[in-house]
Amino acid sequence: MSPKEDAIDILVVGSGLAGLTAAITARQAGAELVLIAESQDVVGGSTRLCDGMILGANTRLQRKHGIEDSAKNFFNEYMAWTQWELPGGLIKAFTEESGPAIDWLEEQGVEFHDLVIYGGSENIPRGVVAKEKGQGIVNVLAAKAKSLDIDIAIGQPVKSLIIRDGAVVGAIVGDDEVFARSVILASGGYGANPVKVAKWWPNATSAGDWLWYMGADGAQGDALDFAEQANARISGFDRGLRLPHPNFVNAQEPYIPGWQIMVNAQGTRFVDESSPYGAVDRAFSLNDNKGFIIFDDQALHVDPDNEMPAYKQVVPAFGKRRSASWNVPMMEEMIEKGAITQANSIAELAQKLGISPEQLEHTIAQYNAGAAEGIDAFGKEAKFLRPVVQAPFYGKEIRPATIAATGTGPMIDNKARVVDHNGDPIPGLFAAGEATGGFLGYVYAGSGNSLAGCASFGRIAGKSAASTL
Length: 469
Ligand SMILES: Cc1cc2nc3c(=O)[nH]c(=O)nc-3n(C[C@H](O)[C@H](O)[C@H](O)COP(=O)(O)OP(=O)(O)OC[C@H]3O[C@@H](n4cnc5c(N)ncnc54)[C@H](O)[C@@H]3O)c2cc1C
Prior knowledge:
Helix content is 30%, strand content 20%. Helix 1 packs parallel to helix 12 (449-467). The chain has two domains: 8-239 and 407-467, FAD/NAD(P)-binding domain (3-Layer(bba) Sandwich); 241-402, Succinate dehydrogenase/fumarate reductase flavoprotein, catalytic domain (Flavocytochrome C3, Chain A, domain 1). By secondary structure, the chain is an alpha/beta fold. It is elongated. Strand 7 and strand 8 form a beta hairpin. Strands 1, 2, 5, 6, 7, 8, 17 and 18 form an eight-stranded mixed β-sheet that branches. Strands 9, 11, 12, 13, 14 and 15 form a six-stranded mixed β-sheet that branches.
């Protein structure tokens, strides 16, 4: 039998935001037989675990709140954050689709909080937050898929592609051959696969055994294998988003509290500690992926009801954010265990941490002088500045060791078509979301960056694949 005779229209690999969006969009654009294969026993991938914040320009919610924005603004900011190293055509397609994709999610029934917030340090707020976070998005889209007769086959891993004469014509799903006119790869990242992290993101492995992935088990990087099988170009080597932690607990902790001071192995500060996490991640990369948090006795005597502001990134709907690592009971426990180093002077602390005492003394003195005046060399806001003066002094190594998202995968063009080594589309193969490469830069562009890519390229992939039928 020829592959085309019993082919379905579209096979989507993975049921996170990218896959659900692509499948529903394709169906709404005229595809009749659409199947989603999901390797795990649960729908939703990392999307269902996530906080549900998405970036988009020129959304209905922005307009409602009187915020003037445009795809061009977003494009210019995105290209600047990512230092103009990403393909402009791809980012243009993304930024143009970003707002309509959020409006489309609302039309499908996803409820967002009635506010628009900053995802990082952009000029114009363009972040929206789903009311029931990621699980809420998945619930709505899975129900929508069902209402459109899109099957989601759970526990059915796609094992390999079926390729004939250079065109993708289906895949091995579980034990079955499934022929399809198009296959859309939406199988997420590779954070749960240490072998692939070592191969595709060696910079992250500097965290050694502190490294952990906060996403779903299904993030095994299968799209990289499919890309190799189809001879696709793989893009985004050594990219992704890491969050720093001191190895006390494995908990999602996006930000370093603003009141803290962090120095590198030489004893000098290297970033405004309250910066967006994408910027902090990049700063770690430029400083041997290693920092030390330094604080004094005052930090152990804060009144929890009247403590210093810790974060400039506020998500009103989430309530007050408390640090999983840097709260008083945890810090006291870690001091007791010897996991936090204690000393009676800054010089002694430096010695114990293996940092130059003179340099650390100088750094702390400089910081304290700035704090007295409300001025910081790294531009940290005055409200975060607390002098480090009260013995005993404390220090703890911190590493960018929580993998939040990966950025390597098959390269797509502005129609979400997977391309070969010459940049030409591979017939029958599309991709969207964290499975793709070439969309994240060295600086992750703020909260909502990844989901924005999933929704936008999910929409684009669904429309493109349907248009080839
Ligand atoms: C705790 C947490 C909070 C986050 N918060 C945010 C946020 O607020 N905003 C933001 O932008 N990003 C956030 N992220 C990142 C974001 O959630 C992910 O990057 C995004 O959800 C990825 O979506 P996806 O559709 O590409 O992949 P996923 O949602 O991971 O879905 C991929 C699916 O494909 C399946 N799959 C894999 N291989 C196969 C195969 N061979 N066959 C069949 N199925 C397969 C997987 O099991 C999975 O279900 C967060 C991540 C985490 C973990």
